[in-house]
Design a protein that fits this description.
The protein is an alpha/beta fold and 636 residues long. It has 18 helices and 25 strands.
């Protein structure tokens, strides 16, 4: 046997034996050779073998007593179908009610998927909970039907308060069929406008002071003083008040709903308070977007509260850091995470990242001369770094998560090829770029590790080659370490190049796009600079000057009509669509655009992964090509 010098040599040598031991020790809930539920044959769409495996695994996890399941599947694997089918199969022929929370542009798509997957089902879209709404727009919960390939509002209309009064049994009498409620995560979080609520003492020792409405006493701050009228800014304030005669401690908000503005309550807030356990199943789409400490993230906890079982769907569980998943785990199984020592907040996050992630400890030492001695000081900074321990998978994912990759269903998909297209800058552009680079380098040498200059360097050097005009003089902000004063320093004046000519990267893109269109393939182009130096507008100009029918998807297009926007552009005969990749990263199927170009990539791996799979998914018949363009020798 060859000498085993490293752990990699060991793994290569004993991989078959290790794999056998792992499969023997950790038996999957459902194996490929296990029989499928006969209920799968009653679906209106046939699940692919890999999809059926994930469905049965999720169903058996629920039957075993599990509550919160997860499906991690690449874009295009059919997560929607798998989640819907899991509810149907687990119900085992009994009537059930489910609720799904999805991105704001997908409620109608989700409704369509439910109709195309389940027999004898009714679907409702949750819009809002408010007074005096626009009568031309749907409100409350409105039933929809699938007619002539479109989702239209038709049927029962009911409010959340009425649904609460009915209870699950009352709603079952009103709607004896299986029912799905679809809610946008944006609509679900929208509640009332608020305003500050406090009183001013007009007499006595506290005359002129802010006093709490429930306590009648000045409100103390954490620093030891009292709140004043000037303290009330854009933030909410509250206090904890002890009831009379040494009673219980109660929460006393110093804010209230503003009746002079839009009168509404957040649907998720209402359901979380009054409809615990109302739904048999809940589905949280794009689970990775619900990990933050946001109103949308809190919606995940509400879904878990109002349902008996829940399944979360995502294509990218983490963005490279271990603690990306912590918020999801805490909301789906908070008690277990607390027992493991990962409390909510920064402290718990730091412990979790230190246990399952990678941390870098940066120690800075300073030496100074005192009157009779030398003093040494050190500052320690802990920074998180990309990387996840395999223990994270074994501890929190293996027993409750179904993983599906596009390779698992690739026999049903065309080929997928990614390629990088390097382009050399011409002499004029290269000189202008180099001048900016050298100027920023010189400034960084004079002011090392200055965050303003570092950010300036990254953004300017990424954008300028793609838009070498319209740049004003570049300045950096330098903070004086002694006084804290901000000094503005001049860095450089970028050269103003000719707007009327094409640059090498534009020429290469145009040449490649024309070749794709000649093959009868429509093209989607992604660019990330859309502000003052709008690269999407520049590309539209380049394509239209070449005679190509081009459209630009802007962020001003409401999320819930973007699918219809694409359909309208296709009817107009568009050949090229340009947009920021974030606008299409979730939910949209770009089957009509088998060629995707990343003219610029941006910083987010979540967005890059999601957008690059918009075309390679079930239903695609043409080979998919994803191409990344960049200038050689630049930060791109």
């Amino acid at each position: 046997m060859a000498a085993l010098a490293t752990i990699f040599d060991y793994l290569r040598e004993f991989a078959p034996d290790l794999g056998k031991r792992i499969t023997e020790a950790y038996q999957p809930l459902h194996r490929p050779e296990d029989p499928l539920s006969p209920l799968l044959s009653k679906l209106r769409r046939k699940a692919l073998p890999a999809q059926a495996l994930a469905i049965m695994g999720t169903v058996k996890f629920w039957k075993k007593g599990g509550r919160a399941a997860k499906m991690v599947a690449e874009c295009g694997c059919g997560k929607t179908l798998m989640a819907i089918a899991s509810c149907f199969v687990h119900a085992a022929g009994k009537r059930f009610t489910a609720i799904a929370m999805c991105p704001p542009h997908l409620p109608k798509k989700w409704a369509r998927e439910v109709f195309l997957t389940l027999p004898n089902v009714r679907v409702f879209i949750v819009y809002d909970m408010r007074n005096n709404g626009d009568i031309k727009k749907p409100h409350g919960m409105t039933e929809v039907v699938y007619e002539k390939g479109k989702i239209v509002h038709k049927g029962l209309k009911v409010t959340l308060s009425a649904l609460r009064q009915m209870g699950p049994k009352g709603f079952a009498k009103l709607c004896p069929e299986n029912s799905f409620f679809i809610m946008s995560k944006e609509k679900g979080k929208l509640g009332y406008f608020w305003k500050h609520a406090y009183e001013m003492a007009e007499s006595g020792p506290n005359n002129g002071s802010v006093i709490g409405i429930d306590s009648g006493l000045p409100v103390e701050t954490s620093s030891g003083g009292n709140l004043t009228r000037m303290s009330f800014d854009a933030n909410k304030y509250d206090e904890t008040v002890e009831r009379a005669k040494k009673g219980t401690m109660v929460f006393s908000p110093l804010w209230q709903a503003d009746k002079n503005k839009l009168q509404r309550m957040a649907p998720l807030d209402y359901m979380g308070r009054y409809m615990k356990g109302f739904f048999d199943y809940a589905i949280a789409d794009e689970l990775h977007q619900l990990a933050g400490d946001t109103a949308q993230g809190n919606g995940l906890a509400v879904l878990n509260r109002i349902s008996k079982r829940i399944v979360g769907l995502t294509g990218t569980m983490t963005g490279g850091y271990a603690d990306d998943i912590l918020g999801v785990l805490q909301r789906l199984d908070g008690p277990q995470m607390a027992r493991d020592g990962y409390a909510w907040g920064g402290e718990g996050r730091s412990v979790f990242q230190g246990t399952y992630g990678v941390c870098e400890e940066v120690v800075k030492r300073y030496t100074s001369d005192n009157a009779c001695s030398k003093a040494s000081k050190a500052s320690v900074t802990i920074k998180r770094r990309p990387g996840c321990s395999p223990l994270l998978f074994g501890k929190y994912l293996m027993e409750n998560t179904a993983f599906v990759s596009l390779e698992d269903i690739s026999s049903s998909l065309p080929s997928y090829v990614e390629s990088v297209i390097p382009v050399d800058m011409d002499a004029e552009l290269s000189k202008a770029y180099t001048d900016i680079l050298e100027a920023i380098k010189k400034a960084l040498e004079e002011y090392p590790r200055n965050p303003s200059l570092t950010s300036l360097m990254l953004n300017t050097l990424l954008c300028y080659p793609d838009h070498p005009f319209g740049f004003d003089s570049i300045y950096g902000k330098i903070k004086d370490k002694q006084t804290g004063a901000i000094e503005v320093v001049h860095v450089c004046d970028p050269a103003e190049l000719d707007r009327g000519r094409l640059y090498p990267k534009e020429e290469k893109l145009l040449e490649d796009v024309k070749a794709e269109i000649a093959e009868g393939r429509r093209v989607q182009v992604f660019a990330t600079f859309t502000g003052r130096h709008d690269v999407t507008a520049r590309l539209k100009y380049v394509f239209e000057q070449a005679g190509l029918r081009t459209a630009v998807l802007k962020s001003s297009v409401p999320t819930d009509v973007r699918e219809a926007w694409y359909e309208a552009r296709l009817k107009e005969g568009v050949q090229v669509v340009v947009c920021h990749p974030k606008l299409v990263e979730t939910g949209l199927d770009l089957l009509d655009f088998p060629t995707l170009y990343f003219y610029e990539t941006g910083y987010s791996l979540f967005t890059l992964r999601q957008a690059s799979r918009r075309s390679w998914r079930i239903g695609q018949e043409k080979p998919v090509r994803v191409k990344f363009l960049m200038y050689s020798g630049t930060v791109q």
